[in-house]
Amino acid sequence: MMKTAAAIVFLFALTACATKPADENDVPSLVPPPDAAAAAPNPASDARLAEMQTSMTELLERIDVLNARIARLESSSSSPQETRVAQAPPRAVEPAPRAIEPVPPPASTHVTAPVSGPLQNAAIADSYRGALILYGKGRMAEARTVLQQVFDADPSGELADNALYWIGETYYAGGDYTNAMRVYERVTKEYPEQNKAPDAMLKIGLTFVKTGDLGMARKTFDEIVRRYPYSTAASSAKLELKRVKY
Length: 246
Known about the structure:
The chain has helices at residues 2-19, 34-37, 43-76, 118-136, 140-153, 160-173, 177-190, 196-210, 214-227, 232-243. 64% of the residues lie in helices and 0% in strands.
């Protein structure tokens, strides 16, 4: 009898345990762990992102150089230009025995000076900005026309090498590598000490890569590192030397 009672008590305890609500921690979660939800890394996407970041860095550095030059141009044009008016020296009045009819003065004594100096530089800078905006919108032919006007206005000015370089860029963007190469070479030969010379040489190397002349491309990249070791173009040239299979 005692054994039977003990068995009943044991069964009752088992039933109570079976009907007890499960603890929240025991309930399997329907939300996948973060590691399972995360997508596997895509090597191609990572490489593309690195390339875009490199291009953005180069673009920002070029913009910094451009902004510095434009700031100098605008600061030099902040004071109004004085226009000198040519005036004839005063004539001595001599007594005359008889009245002399007065000579009528010229219609205008104001001399308009041609636009030059700081005002001309500011106008060139404005045109240059407009050309870059056209380039950014993909209007290459229009951008090239304005850039040519900027270059022709002052071939020895601060923006001459920049204008010539971007003329080459309009050709390069359109796949006209022959004309692009011709313009880039002008930048490196006519403005070897200006800031766009390293960039132009880098684009010459990239043009050789586009046209399949990898030997000349490697030679050009090596030359950039030798001539302009501290430039952004030299850093890009080193990457190209590692990337391109020669």
